[in-house]
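In full, the data.
>
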Amino acid sequence: MKVRISDTYTNQEIISYSIMLGSGSANQHLLDQDYFEEAWKNAIEDNLVDKDRRSEYKFEIVIK
């Protein structure tokens, strides 16, 4: 699933990540929030966001 992180104030895209979670098991119920958390961790590791200002970013699932 693709997750876009954008600046809340300018609406400018910071980054989009393709996030793969789970083993594909039918019993595993993943939420959008699970994908957002993984994208947030990646953005912190890549030094693209301020980890102390998460509320200044928005997360969206990209469907294309």
